[in-house]
Design a protein that fits this description.
globular; binds adenosine-5'-triphosphate; alpha/beta; 212 residues; 19% strand; 9 helices; binds magnesium ion
C-alpha cells in the first residue's frame, strides 16, 4: 500500500499521522518506508531520532525526496511492502507528484474554519490528479480534535466533511493529546508507549487504511 498524508494547510498533524502509521506498521512486522517529500523533513528527522535513540525498535526505513518525486515513489514501491509518504503543508510539485504515485491520500484537517476552507482547493487538486491516477482514493481525517466532551467542533466538522464530494470521511478521529507530541519528540509511535488513549485512534486508522 502506498499511502500519502497530505494537504495544502500547514500544521494539521500530517507528520504526526505519518510517523504513527509507520511505527504501527513496523510493530506489525511489516516492511515499511517512510518517505518524506517535505523539505522541512520532520518525519525523516523523527525516523533518525528513532534509529539513534531506539536502535532495537522495529525498523522504520526512511528516505527524503524533493521536486518531481513520482519516479522515486514508483521505484521504492518495488522494494517495500508499505510506503507512507509525508508531504508539506502547501501545494508543491512534490505533493502533486507524490499523489500521482499514491493509492490512498489522507488529508488531516483540524476542526476549524481555517482548515475546512482549504477543502475546496484540495478537492480540485485531487480531481486533477485522479484524471491521471484513476486509482487514487482520497479521504479526509479530523485531527487535533479536542478531548473535551463539551466541545462539538469535531462532530460539526465531520458533518460538513461528510457532504464533500470527492473526499471520503475517515471513521477515525485523531484527538489533541500530549502523548502524540511526546512520541514525536522521542522518535516512537504512540502504539509503542505505555497504555494511552491515542493508541486505539491510530489502530483504527491503520486498520481502515491497510485492512480496509
Ligand atoms: N493529535 C495531536 N495531538 C497533539 N499534538 C499534535 C497532534 N498532531 C500534531 N500535533 C502537534 O501539532 C504540531 C503540528 O503537527 P505536525 O507537525 O504533525 O503537522 P504537519 O501537518 O505535519 O505540519 P506541516 O504542515 O508544518 O508539515 C506539532 O507540534 C505536533 O506535535
Ligand atoms: Mg509535517
Amino acid at each position: 500500500m502506498i499511502v500519502m498524508i497530505g494537504g495544502i494547510k500547514g500544521g494539521t498533524g500530517k507528520s504526526t499521522v505519518a510517523t504513527n502509521l509507520a511505527a504501527y506498521l513496523a510493530n506489525q512486522g511489516a516492511d515499511v518506508l517512510l518517505l518524506d517529500v517535505d523539505p522541512q523533513a520532520s518525519a525523516y528527522k523523527w525516523a533518525m531520532r528513532r534509529q539513534e535513540q531506539h536502535p532495537d525498535a522495529p525498523k522504520v526505513n526512511t528516505a527524503q525526496a524533493s521536486g518531481r518525486v513520482f519516479d522515486v515513489v514508483r521505484d521504492v514501491a518495488k522494494r517495500y511492502e508499505h510506503i507512507v509518504i509525508d508531504s508539506g503543508g502547501h501545494a508543491s510539485d512534490a505533493m502533486k507528484s507524490a499523489m500521482l504515485g499514491a493509492q490512498k491520500l489522507y488529508v488531516p484537517l483540524r476542526p476549524s474554519q481555517a482548515d475546512l476552507e482549504t477543502v475546496g482547493e484540495m478537492v480540485g487538486m485531487i480531481a486533477d490528479v485522479q484524471a491521471l491516477n484513476a486509482g487514487l482514493e482520497a479521504f479526509s481525517l479530523i485531527s487535533l480534535a479536542s478531548t473535551n466532551p463539551s466541545v462539538f467542533e469535531a462532530q460539526e466538522a465531520r458533518e460538513a466533511l461528510r457532504e464533500v464530494p470527492g473526499l471520503i470521511l475517515s471513521d477515525s478521529v485523531i484527538r489533541d493529546r500530549k502523548i502524540y507530541r511526546d512520541a514525536f519528540f522521542e522518535g516512537v509511535g504512540v502504539v509503542e508507549m505505555t497504555h494511552n488513549k491515542a493508541t486505539p485512534e491510530v489502530q483504527l486508522l491503520a486498520q481502515e487504511i491497510f485492512n480496509g
